[in-house]
Every structure is written in structure tokens, then in C-alpha cells.
Amino acid sequence: MFEKILVANRGEIAVRIIRTCKELNIRTVAIYSEADANSMHVQMADEAICIGKAPSSESYLRVDRIISAAEITDVDAIHPGYGFLSENAHFADVCENCNIRFIGPSSRAMNALSDKAVSRTLAKKAGVPAPPGSDGLVENEQEAKEIAKRIGYPVMIKAIAGGGGRGMRIAHNDMSLVKGFYTARTEAEKAFGNSGVYIEKYIENPHHVEFQILGDNRGNIIHLGERDCSIQRRNQKILEETPSPLIENRFKDLRKKMGKAAIRIAEVANYTSAGTVEFIVDDSGSFYFLEVNKRIQVEHPITEEVTGIDLVKQQILVALGEPLKISQGDVHFNGHAIECRINAEDPFDDFRPCPGRIEMYYPPGGRGVRLDSHAYAGYMIPPTYDSLIAKLITHGRDRRDAMDKMNRALNEYMVTGIKTTIPFEQAILQDPNFRRGVYSTSFVDQLLGGARRELIEEKA
Questions:
Q1: Are residues 157 and 199 in contact, defined by beta-carbon separation less than 8 angstroms?
Q2: Which strand (E) or helix (H) includes residue 263?
Q3: Integer Cα distance of 129 and 139 in angstroms
Q4: Residues with catalytic annotation?
Q5: In this predicted structure, what is the pLDDT of residue 451?
Q6: Distance between CA 186 and CA 157 in Å, rounded?
Q7: Res. 191 pLDDT band, cuts 50 70 90
Q8: Which domains does the chain have, with CATH numbers?
Q9: What's the mean pLDDT in 95-99?
Q10: Which neighbouring-strand residues pair with 388?
């Protein structure tokens, strides 16, 4: 077993990783920026090193400073969490060259899935359908217009790097295509340091369904079921659940088909560690490959709750060179789980970030409730990073039980001093369409429309 692991991240995911390391009797090193000096992950780790100023470009994205911290503290491995450098093949390469294990997929697998456009080509090689679109990068607006004319509007302009809804724009005509093309490129350059974009057919009102995969260094790859991530704002997930109501209620045969497709893609890429294969599903039950997230996902806890498998522990064991001790037949799904992302945002002001000091903080608890968070009373949420402050997860014997537990937990959750998305998520849990499991990626826009918005704001 590793003796010491450096966690190259911050916030709730750093706390999450440290907890599993403690259970495995592995010492931990936290890195932090000046803005995170009082963050919980710094307090929980065995050692902590400041690596720079608040901007991530001067701290959490500085490969040289992270490697220096790892060498000074003499760690065996680095866990990148999600975001920041978690999908950076160069960072994985540097770790390997410095004899530090990178807890994640190999740099070779990352390069095989180096961007979303390349991943589309790999999916086709694996025999998995992808939405019609460009064969690679789109270099200029004229090329963009030609592709849009060929596949037909509406189209989606998408950044080849990163995620979180950044660098994505929908276009319904040539005018919005040109504007979206340049806006997406600029946004992608600022967010990921890569302005590359590609274009694909936009499937209206789709369902966003992803499959958790797990692979070792000996070619064994399994999937751990699906997660429905269709509840989104600005193409960013806000609530996830497993199993998917769409698959459970309408297309049960899809689980087997999509699970096999996810494994085929992972096999072609020689994928190792935990990862996620994302798909969109239309109302007729046809599914299309979107991308592979080459890291642990924000929403991984709901998969852990229904399978009983600690995904971070599995990542660590795979990085050690251990073979998977779980076969596909060993994976069993127990009940239903839901995750609400609690963000420091004003959901009734276009989800505007609301950094500041938390005054009162009372977390929910009880049977079937899990809270992954780095927040506490008196904690100052910096304006520099993602607005996520907690992930609230409930697990029940079925979907209704999980929803009832979530409703109760949201009502218990008390955070004052800042605005959060809690009132909005309470509204989601009360919505009749959500409760019936009838929703798509347009759900949030519909929920915030007209009289229903006024009613939600009044209750909030």
C-alpha cells in the first residue's frame, strides 16, 4: 500500500479523498492556495503546503509547484481529484517521470481520449454511435457554416477540452452560429487554455445518461451502472440520480446495451482507473456517445451508495497495480440514490455565484443521508473557484424513498450568510414531472419559466 499520497485538489473532493486514505491508513499531503489556508482539507491532511496565490493559474494548475510539494514531502502518489489537472496527460507524464504514481488513467489513455473530437473518432472505431458532426476541429466560421448546412440546424458548438458546460453554444441559424463560434472559442481559451471547438448535431430535449466504468492495468474493465444527469443549468449538472428513471420506466434494455458500449470504448482506449462514458438518449430510445470523463466524477457518490463500492479506494488499488477483484457479475444494484449539488449561487438571478462568509451552518443527517462537504460555520467561500460547497446524497429502497429522504434533508439543511441553490432543489423535488421521472435537459428552463418561477421564489 502507498505510505503517503498528495491530493492535488481542494474543496469537497480533497476531503473525500483524504477520508478514504485515512481508512486505508495512508498519510496525506494537502496543497492549498493562499485563499484556502483555512479550508477543511488543509486541516484534515497530515501535512499541508501552500503552493501559491488564489488564482488557480498560480496554484492548483502549477505542475511545477505541485511536483515540488510532492518531492519535498516524499509522497508515493498523487490523486488529482476532478477538475484542475485531473485530465491533463502532461501532468500524468511528469508524475510518471518523477517516479510518482498518478492515481488515474495512464497518460497514454488520456491521449487516446485527448479531446472530445478525438473521442468521437474512437467511439466510431468501437462501433458506438455518435451524433452527426465535424470530423475534428473546426478552424473558421466558413467551415462551421458548411458543417451546419450539411447536418442541419440546430447544432451544438463544443469545446474539445474541459467540461462543466463551458465553451458550449447552441445555434439555430447562420447568425447565431457565427456568434456562438467565437464566443465558445473565447470561453474555452479562458477556461481550459485551448480554444479548439467542434460541431455536432444538437438533439433537442435529450436525456443525459452516463455510465461509470472501472478498469485495471491487466485489461479488466467493468461498468457500475448508469447515472441520469439531465437536470442541468447552463449545461452544468445540478442533480443526478441512479438508476435513470428513463431507463427504469421506458427502456430497460438500454442498460445492457449502453453498458456494453461504454466498456467497448474503454477497451479501445486501453482505459484504466475510474472514468465515465457520457451519452445522450432521445425520446425514441436511441443513444449517442458524447465524451469520456477521464477522472472521478463529481456525482460518483450515488454510484457508491447503490453498489457499495468505494471508487476512490478502487482508483488507489488500480494505481498500485492490483487487479480488479470485482467482476461484472459481482456488481449488484441496491435501491435508488439521488445527489443534489449545493452551490453558493442565487438560482433566481441566473445562478449568479454568491461567495462570502457562512454564518450559520447546520448539516442534515439521519438514515440514508450522506453529505460530502468542506463547508462549516465561519468558512469564507472564495470568489476564485467553483461555487460547489456540498453534495447532498440520499439512498432509499426505491426512488420514492430516496426522494422523500432528500426532501427531508433539504428542509433540514441550514446555511445562512450566503445564497445557495437549496430552495431551487427543494422546488425540483416537489415538481410533479420530476417526481414521475419525466424530464430532460430542458427541465430547469421549464421550471424557471413564467408563473412557476414566481411560485418558487415566493416559497423560497
A1: yes
A2: helix 253-268
A3: 24
A4: 295
A5: 46
A6: 12
A7: confident
A8: 4-103 (3.40.50.20), 132-201 (3.30.1490.20), 207-459 (3.30.470.20)
A9: 96
A10: 343
